[in-house]
């Protein structure tokens, strides 16, 4: 399977769709009939009439989420190949994103983090352009607006502002105007939100938007079912193998490639640690980590040499995902 996706063959789009269906249809066997649906944060629900906490048919939610994941997978594949991050075009980034986004059952339904992944892809596309562009102030401003927009959908996305600053440190010499432009872009979004709140007589609640940012970092995380987290074993193994592969090729790679993987690593860390902002923390938050993880996975599987080993490793991950969808323990 991996060997087929190593090639940049359009027929892989068809196989990608098949694998996407296989990874999601099994969940419907033991799934509840309905699921909760929230698309924007509470402070912005008045901007979307009728959007409160509702329930929706789970098959419909899984179907919409599957279509979104498929589109996102192709977009990620396009960005990785456009910037030639692997030195060879393939469909592995798309395959790995489809796989990682089906890792846990909360990932399979429509959610705020899943929608925000469109913005993460857009950010990565613009951040990678920092390397060659001489004047990036307009891009920095756009990125600030993207983070502001993402914060309206899902408040923990605000921490992706740190990703912009990390990219500025990695890709660019210091220029205070680039940093200021990103701040102005973010402020622009909330300026218009403040104007809306003023016109609707809700300006007194405007400051409450950022109160969750003061939440103390939890000392422990409650895990309801430890068995499902056995899937993290092959994930951790693949990540470790990827880092060893990156280490061996690091100084042989182009400067853009080295800097890009540094950016993906910090994106993964920042996205993962932002979970504490939500009082009603849910596992689907870690969908924000799926894009950098998928890129790391794709890099390993593209350069792995022992076919029997990497094919077996991916099969175990794929089979494990399906197995835990059928078993609720």
UniProtKB/TrEMBL annotation:
Keyword tags: Membrane, Transmembrane, Transmembrane helix
Domain of life: Bacteria
Keyword hit for Transmembrane: yes
Presence of the UniProt keyword Membrane in the record: yes
Any one Pfam family match given in the protein's UniProt record, by short name: DUF6427
Alphabetical list of InterPro entries matching this protein: DUF6427
Coiled-coil parts of chain: none
Secretion signal span: none
TM segment ranges: 12-30, 60-83, 95-125, 145-171, 183-199, 226-244, 256-277, 283-301, 308-326
Protein name: Beta-carotene 15,15'-monooxygenase
Organism: Mucilaginibacter boryungensis
Phylogenetic classification of the source organism: Bacteria, Pseudomonadati, Bacteroidota, Sphingobacteriia, Sphingobacteriales
């Amino acid at each position: 399977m991996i060997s087929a996706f190593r090639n940049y063959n359009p027929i892989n789009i068809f196989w990608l769709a098949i694998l996407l269906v296989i990874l999601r249809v099994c969940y419907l066997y033991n799934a509840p009939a309905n699921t909760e649906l929230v698309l924007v944060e509470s402070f912005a629900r008045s901007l979307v009439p009728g959007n409160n906490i509702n329930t929706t048919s789970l098959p419909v939610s899984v179907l919409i989420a599957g279509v979104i994941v498929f589109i996102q997978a192709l977009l990620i594949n396009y960005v990785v190949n456009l910037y030639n991050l692997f030195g060879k075009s393939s469909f592995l980034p798309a395959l790995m994103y489809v796989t990682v986004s089906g890792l846990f059952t909360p990932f399979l339904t429509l959610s705020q983090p899943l929608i925000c992944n469109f913005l993460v892809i857009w950010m990565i596309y613009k951040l990678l352009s920092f390397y060659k562009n001489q004047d990036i102030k307009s891009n920095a401003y756009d990125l600030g607006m993207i983070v502001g927009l993402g914060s309206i959908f899902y408040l923990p996305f605000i921490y992706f502002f740190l990703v912009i600053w990390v990219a500025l440190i990695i890709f660019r010499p210091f220029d205070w105007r680039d940093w200021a432009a990103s701040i102005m872009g973010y402020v622009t979004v909330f300026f218009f939100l403040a104007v809306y709140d003023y016109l609707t007589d809700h300006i007194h609640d405007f400051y409450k938007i950022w109160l969750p940012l003061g939440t103390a970092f939890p000392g422990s995380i409650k895990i309801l079912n430890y068995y499902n987290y056995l899937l993290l074993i092959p994930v951790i193994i693949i990540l470790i193998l990827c880092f060893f592969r990156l280490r061996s090729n690091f100084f042989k790679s182009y400067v853009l490639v080295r800097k890009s993987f540094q950016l993906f690593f910090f994106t993964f860390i920042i996205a993962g640690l932002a979970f504490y902002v939500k009082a009603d923390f849910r596992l689907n938050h870690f969908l924000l980590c799926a894009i950098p993880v998928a890129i790391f996975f794709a890099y390993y599987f593209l350069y792995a040499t022992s076919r029997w080993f990497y094919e077996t490793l991916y099969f175990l991950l794929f089979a494990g995902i399906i197995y835990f969808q059928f078993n609720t323990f």
